[in-house]
Amino acid sequence: MWPWLLPIVVAAVAANLESDVQRPLGPGRDSVPGSGSESRPNIIFILTDDQDLHMNSLAYMPYVKKHLIDEGTFYQRHYCTIALCCPSRVSLWTGRASHNTNVTDVNPPYGGYPKFVSQGFNEAWLPIWLQDIGYNTYYTGKLFNAHSLSTYDSPFVKGFTGSDFLLDPHTYEYLNASFQRNREPPVSHEGEYSTDVLADKAFGFLEDAVAEQKPFFLTIAPNAPHSNVKFQEDWFNGSGSAHTIFTTPPIPAQRHKDLFQDAVVPRTPGFNPDEPHGVSWISDLPQQNQTNLDFNDGFYRDRLRALQAVDEIVDAVVDRLTKHDILDNTYIFYSTDNGYHIGQHRLQPGKECGFEEDINVPLIVRGPGVAKGRVSEIVTSHTDLAPTFLTLAGGEIRPDFDGVTIPVTSEQFDAAAGVRGEHVNIEYWGFALAEGQYGKAMYWNNTYKGLRLIGKTYNLYYSVWCSGEHELYDLTRDPYETHNLYTTNHSSAFTFPSSTPGERARHITLQQLLSRLDSLVMVLKTCKARSCTHPWEVLHPAGDVHDLHDALGVRYDDFYQFRQERVRYEKCEKGYILESEGPRHVKAYSHSTDEIGIRGGAQWSELV
Predict the structure, then answer these.
(1) Fewer Cβ in 10 A, N or C end of the chain?
(2) 600: how many CB neighbours lie within 10 A of its CB?
(3) Domain segments of the chain as ranges
(4) Which of helix, strand or coil describes residue 374?
(5) Dihedrals phi, psi of 545, to nearest 5 degrees
(6) Residue by residue, what is the 3-state secondary structure of 470-500?
């Protein structure tokens, strides 16, 4: 666990758990009842919206700490592969990277529920696969953007035994939500607190699921702690601008509105720096003045307050599972669609960036065989969740998955030792939105390809922007991503610390490192299936290179530095348009100096 998070968690839990019974609440054995001891497990997935990991939000959720972190495994290196809700959720539910779903925005023509449907995913996604193997499936809360009062029945969402969805344009209005149950007309809940309405619906589905005496999968997806948002119609027709969306801090339940009066955004070294960070539009952001900082601290406090009703859902779910005697046969997953920033790198409240605040997100799991109190360092991503859910349910892994099953039980962790990948593909297209009161804007030059690479002696982020700009951060030495190494002399030395006692540190040039990272991004930016999970195999088909350390062998210098194309764009686009993505073929190393293979998709040809 991060050194800055542990003491805060301990302090917050010590302060809050003591008074749990006084905190006002919201509404609300090894087998499934009536089945044999070998019955399949139930799965409950609590999916928040825009929840941060790097601003300590978990430290203010004592029930998450008590029931999930203490009783399960916390995956501290879990990533979304695209820091925007709808594309991230589609990847999560399909097990595919965004460049393979082609759902890359929140609204048409490049994203939203209509794009999800047009791509064929309403007939091919996780709830349908779970139903095919005998699970009942339930969902309440936010599904996708542009799933709205005008699109909810064109067509209806497929795959759920029971559903009650939040609908646009009121998804993010905490006191004006519209829900749509099964195939019934939408119902307005104006004046009611949306998270509490959702809680009642979730508890009702849980009771339905238990009564059916079948294994079940239940998703509870509140809009918290997303900002409170009102849209104008132009936002949904592809004409969106900063003037067609009105964002304000999230609204907490009345019972929570006065909590955490002294909380402020953590003042890390990357917070509102004296010198700008990043590239493109980020490098031009002004430093925030005190009035701006004060407002953003209030925004932060309201995020924490809005999460309290979610925290109460966690407690109530565990209580109900316990009363029904099925807690020990139920996995509970807790995560979010993407992370969030407030003030880091001078950014106004928002997401959509490749910085750690936006892509490194919470994932906590408890359930049968899950180690209690474990903090995992394995690298996982949202594309791994669909395979993981299917594996736990006893289903077969699909060949078109771009992710792999996350080890959950102790036995799975043992089997995964030395096998799990070191990388996460990061990608983004189109806009970035500055939320809140200050610096309100939409930035359209926010298209980039990125890579997170984490090994025993390296911790790197590399990205290439459609503008031709590059970023490289060494998070071992620069955990807050304040110094872009790409702008330094590429002939300068880069040192990998030794991972073995008595072994010398490894010294290379920055150019040697960049050539490997760029080639890896070349594979990942159009990868499919196994090439997404084992990209080094594409570059080294002989199977003798498994990670960055292996690839840094001197004998590969010519191959990486002079024979590979570099990642670049033909032009900046608002969505995934393959013709604008630049070169997309990589060369494969051959031990014969006369033979280099070229791979494009699944095709191979030899150049002699």
Answers:
(1) C
(2) 12
(3) 6-423, 455-607
(4) strand
(5) -125, 120
(6) EEEEECCCCCCCCCCHHHCCCCCEEEECCCC
Given a contact cutoff of 8 angstroms between Cβ atoms, the answer to whether 495 and 505 are in contact is yes
- Angle (CA) 577-578-583 rounded to 5° is 140
CATH 3.40.720.10 is the classification of domain 6-423? yes
158: left (phi over 0), alpha (psi -120 to 50) or beta: beta
Active-site entry in 85, 86, 353, 527: 85
Q: Which tens digit of pLDDT belongs to each residue from 492-549? A: 999 987 766 777 888 999 999 999 999 999 999 999 999 999 999 999 999 999 999 9
Residue 465 three-state SS: strand
Q: Which two tokens stand for residue 254?
A: 């009345």
Alpha-carbon gap, residue 573 to 568, rounded angstroms: 13
* Cα radius of gyration (the chain): 24
Helix axes 194-212, 290-323, angle to 10 degrees: 20
Query: Measured between alpha carbons, how far is 222 from 171 in angstroms, rounded to an integer?
Result: 9
- HEC profile for 248-288? ECCCCCHHHCCCCCCCCCCCCCCECCCCCCCCHHHHHCCCC
**217 touches 209 (CB < 8 A):** no
**Nearest of 182, 148, 188 to residue 164 by alpha carbon:** 182
How many C-alpha atoms does 251 have within 13 Å on its Cβ side? 18
pTM greater than the 0.90 cutoff? yes
Burial readout 488-517 (b: 16 or more C-beta within 10 A, e: otherwise):
eebeeebebeeeeeeeeeeeebbebbbbbb
Is the bond into 109 cis (omega within 30 degrees of 0)? Answer: yes
User: Closest Cα to residue 227, out of 301, 148, 299?
Assistant: 299
pLDDT by residue (tens digit) across 300-345?
Answer: 999 999 999 999 999 999 999 999 999 999 999 999 999 999 999 9
| pLDDT for position 248 | 95
Q: Does the annotation count 85 as an active-site position? A: yes
The rounded distance, in Å, linking the Cα atoms of 529 and 547 is: 18
The alpha carbon torsion through 534, 537, 538, 542 (nearest 10 deg) reads: -170
Judge contact between 101 and 94, C-beta under 8 A: yes
162: three-class secondary structure by DSSP: strand
Q: Express each pLDDT in 379-413 by its tens digit.
A: 999 999 999 999 999 999 999 999 999 999 988 88
* Burial class of residue 259, CB neighbours in 10 A (0-12, 13-18, 19+): middle
Q: Is 598 helix (H, G, I), strand (E, B) or coil?
A: strand
DSSP, collapsed to helix, strand or coil, labels residue 395 as: coil
In angstroms, the CA 240 to CA 255 distance is: 35
The confidence score (pLDDT) of residue 418 equals 66
How far apart are the C-alpha atoms of 526 and 98, rounded to whole Å?
Answer: 10
Alpha helices in 525-593 (DSSP H): 530-533, 535-539, 548-551, 557-562
Q: What dihedral angle (degrees, nearest 10) is formed by the CA atoms of 521, 523, 524, 528?
A: 170
Instruction: Please answer whether residues 240 and 246 qualify as being in contact, where contact means their C-beta atoms are separated by less than 8 angstroms.
Output: no
SS3 content of the chain, % helix, strand, coil (to 5): 30, 20, 50
Alpha-carbon span 202 to 193, nearest angstrom = 14
Round to whole Å and give the CA distance between 308 and 391.
32
